[in-house]
Design a protein that fits this description.
The chain has a domain of 41 residues. It has 96 residues and is mostly helical. It is built from two helices and no strands. Helix 1 packs antiparallel against helix 2.
Length: 96
């Protein structure tokens, strides 16, 4: 469903057009959910929490992917903290 066809731009609807990088076709029965988890995303914190849950569940199945995701989550969380704390403090700093 296009955004124009969606009853509203809030909630669950077809917001993105997806394709595989190698050009192979997608399974027409497949369902996808896109998360924007970078430091600049409006709901980045919540997306990083969801992605973290996925990464933890994948540790035994795909350990390399899991570790890469966890590393990216940490990097983006640190960047988000820096963006929201322009005084250059870091998590855990003691400002007494």
């Amino acid at each position: 469903m296009s955004p124009e066809e969606a009853p509203s731009l809030v909630g669950l609807y077809g917001k993105y057009l997806l394709s595989k990088a190698d050009g192979t076709p997608l399974d027409p029965r497949a369902r996808y959910f896109v998360l924007r988890y970078d430091a600049h995303a409006e709901h980045g914190h919540q997306s990083r929490l969801a992605l973290n849950a996925y990464a933890v569940q994948m540790q035994d199945i795909m350990p390399e992917l899991s570790q890469q995701l966890l590393n990216q989550i940490v990097d983006e969380a640190e960047e988000s903290y820096r963006l929201n704390h322009p005084d250059n403090s870091t998590p855990g700093d003691n400002h007494e």
